[in-house]
Design goal:
Number of strands: 8
Organism: Populus trichocarpa
Membrane topology: Multi-pass membrane protein
Order of helices and strands: EEHHHHEEHHHHEHHEEHE
Pfam families: Pex2_Pex12, zf-C3HC4_2
Structural class: mainly alpha
GO biological process, one term: protein monoubiquitination
Largest sheet: 3 strands, antiparallel
Pathway: Protein modification; protein ubiquitination
């Protein structure tokens, strides 16, 4: 291990950290899918899907704030039994005892670290998603303009140079629209570099964490000076008592007449109940979503997979008519000229092979197969490039 913290747990593995980082994305996909299914019967839920980023960020803001306040860990980290600890590096001296550790001390999170953790967990991902949506819209607009041309400039110019009171409003809207377009163009140019820098930095930290070269999994944790450690058994046992103390203190701070205190207490109890069951409910939603995703994916694979059937049996051989030409013992001989076949051709209606010149002349005159006497014409002659 990279470091061992006395009484504060050990360093989690790379896969534990990766799973904890991936959980919010799975939770968002599960909620989006559930709301989309419910919106089929209740159309007003489409408004939630129109503001998906805001809805999910508000939900995660409540969950992350509550989790950091009660367990000193993010919502996903608390599910994996992880805790956030402030890193305090001690300068090693010559008279330090040998059992003093590796110079790293951990303590609980401070108030500003909890606030900044919420910023890194909720606020920055929200702005990142908004920047991506702006970049994607600008890219689609440029692609459409390159294909169909930009027809909005003439309309804006006509409104800008028109007179009257309406022209003043149109000028303000035009100036505002142009300013927004300039901002979008700047974001369109800067976003790829910002995204590449962010992804490159995240990859570098994850690689160093995997190689035990650093104790910080991400740049945000490094900037806040926080290590993520496994929670000890005593910490997991003390979490319940800590939550009860926080809630009792909140009830004691209620002010007002008795009926107002009772109303506030009931609201707090409802909020506590929702927060207590939110963790179990959201994890169940993620599990159900993954099960449904696997079920429908496997069903689609079964439907799209080619079904292997045994090859069909060959059709029965055509019967030789009594008045038709009898078959010779040598299959390489033309039935019409009794010579070696030249330019072999087959009659598709019966499957017998003749010389092209012989069968073309025969079908043009009689319009039937010379062996089976089945109706045929010259359009049913096919050239054979390999004679058996």
């Amino acid at each position: 291990m990279l470091f061992q913290v006395g009484g504060q747990g050990t360093r989690p593995t790379f896969f534990e950290m990766a799973a904890a980082q991936q959980l919010p994305a799975s939770l968002r996909a599960a909620l989006t899918y559930s709301i989309g299914v419910l919106a089929l019967r209740r159309p007003f839920l489409h408004k939630v899907l129109d503001h998906e980023d805001e809805f999910f960020s508000l939900l995660m803001l409540v969950l992350e704030t509550h989790s950091l306040r009660t367990t000193d860990a993010s919502f996903s980290e608390s599910l994996y039994g992880l805790r956030r600890r402030t890193v305090k590096i001690r300068v090693k001296k010559e008279d330090v005892r040998p059992n003093s550790g590796d110079g790293i001390q951990h303590s609980g999170l401070e108030k500003h670290q909890r606030i900044l953790s919420v910023v890194f967990l909720v606020v920055l991902p929200y702005f990142k998603s908004k920047l991506y949506s702006i970049y994607n819209k600008e890219r689609e607009a440029r692609l459409q303009a390159s294909l169909w041309g930009n027809g909005d400039e003439t309309v804006e110019d006509a409104e800008y140079f028109s007179g009257g009171e309406a022209s003043l409003v149109s000028r303000e809207t035009t100036i505002r629209a142009r300013l927004m377009k300039k901002i979008q163009k700047i974001l369109f140019v800067c976003y790829p570099w910002l995204h590449a820098s962010n992804e490159g930095m995240s990859f570098a930290y994850q690689l160093l964490y995997l190689l035990d070269a650093t104790g910080f999994y991400s740049l945000g944790l490094h900037a806040l000076g926080i290590h993520v450690c496994r929670a000890t058994g005593q910490e997991l046992m003390d979490t319940t008592s800590r939550i009860s103390k926080i809630r009792s203190n909140e009830r004691e701070r209620l002010h007002g007449p008795p009926w107002l205190k009772a109303l506030q207490g009931a609201l707090l109890s409802c909020g506590y109940t929702m927060l207590d069951y939110a963790q179990t409910g959201l994890i169940a939603a993620v599990f159900i979503f993954k099960m449904m995703e696997w079920w429908y994916q496997s069903a689609e694979e079964r439907m799209s997979a080619p079904t292997v059937y045994p090859p069909p049996p060959p059709p029965p051989a055509p019967k030789v008519a009594k008045e038709g030409i009898p078959l010779p013992p040598d299959r390489t001989i033309c039935l019409l000229c009794s010579q070696k076949r030249a330019n072999p051709s087959v009659v598709t209606i019966s499957g017998f092979v003749f010389c092209y010149a012989c069968i073309f002349k025969y079908l043009s005159q009689y319009n039937r197969c010379p062996v089976t006497l089945m109706p045929a014409n010259v359009d049913q002659i096919r050239r054979l490039f390999h004679d058996m």
